[in-house]
Amino acid sequence: MIPFTRNYTDRSNNYGFQFEFKCDKCHNGHLSPFIASKVGMATGLLQAAGSLFGGTLSRAAYAGEHVKDALRGSAWDEAYAEAVEEARKHFKHCTRCGQWVCPQACWNEARGLCESCAPNLQEEAAHIQAHVSVEQAWTKARAVDQVESLDMKAPRSVALSACPHCAARISGGKFCSECGKPLAATHAFCTQCGTELASQARFCSECGTARGS
């Protein structure tokens, strides 16, 4: 039986074989050493030479591709088996759940099991303490009046409007924070028919004359 088959990534290319094996719990990975493919490297060299000189070398490179394809299956299997043997040293096998995990973060050495099956009690205690501390902080905050100075009986309004000069949004004050002009309402009248114009109107609503004409 070959381990790691459920959690690895094939990083192989035309020039060789390489595999990334991952911890079943935290997914930290181990990259196996690159195993060069002799046929792949030879074909690559022939392709490079063939692109320069053509002729026989190009035909040889083409033939090399077919040989590489024919040998890829067995060569890949051998490289994968070799990579598995090398990677076994970097993982621990939990006999309870069958997971392959990294010994640095996911293995409970004292229990001989992965931390999913036998959690580290010191780590769990620290996690529980922190979690409970957050819950208690929420409870404590809710017990304190956070808006004691806010008088909700006083009438309030947002009073959000626009500057009559530049149309910038304003929320109070005597002057516009964008153009600096006074925000006091100014009455404007149409020069053609005398109708009072709205503060932001560009044209008269009665006769259509442009503001300021």
From TrEMBL:
Q: Where is the DZANK-type domain?
A: 163-208
Q: Which InterPro entries match?
A: DZR
One family name in Pfam for this protein: DZR
This one is known as DZANK-type domain-containing protein
Instruction: Specify the species.
Output: Cystobacter fuscus (strain ATCC 25194 / DSM 2262 / NBRC 100088 / M29)
